[in-house]
Structure prediction request, 257 residues.
Amino acid sequence: MIKSSAEIALMAESGRLLASVFSWLEGQTLAGRTTLEVNDLVEDLIVGQLGARPASKGQYGYGFALNCSPNQVVCHGVPSAEDQLRDGDIVNFDITLEKNGYIADSSKTFLIGNVSPGARRLVRTAYEAMWKGISAVRPGARLGDVGHAIERHARRAGYSIVRDYCGHGIGREMHEEPQVLHFGKPGTGLTLREGMVFTIEPMLNQGRRTVRTEEDGWTVVTTDGKLSAQFEHTVAVTRDGVRVLTLRPDETPPSRA
Prediction:
């Protein structure tokens, strides 16, 4: 569970490369592309240009380099040649990258073209909620503090938090201990220690928090058909706070509350 400084340095390199993938995606025209096209472009970038491996491919039998989850899809959406991104969509791309044996994990919800104000507000709040959780990370804090910060921000904005999926420890394996819930009570849960590395990845729904898995066994959607948005970063607990290993060049972490 605890990573050495050398291991964290390797994970930071994976995180830097993964951040560059998202920066590259931000510069692409996504409207009109199928989700399979985006998957193939990302895999070519990770393998061909970055000399790394898309860690999700082959994990648990999954066959693709990323998850793509548009609109009412909460998570684990499967790339398809039939699913075309359209003006007004929101879509989460969840990507994992392995370099030198260590994995980084991140996701971002993209706005495709002319997105409605309601969808924009949901996406913005999901991003803020992730940062509320990250800002609660420090040695001696508890995982319940992290979950509470996320849930409080979401609920104040009128959104629900999906409880069926959570963040997770990460390193040589994509999923390690601990589980990082996006709800909780302050002062409860595992005590954070320097060297812990895990993801924070809240999923916010416009409507009810309940979800269901479609017949493909992967794609998770809202039960009421309303929109869902998610953001994710891989973070390391430092001596005096937190380091975001997948921070993108366009991001400025908010000041700690």
Summary: The longest helix spans residues 5-26.
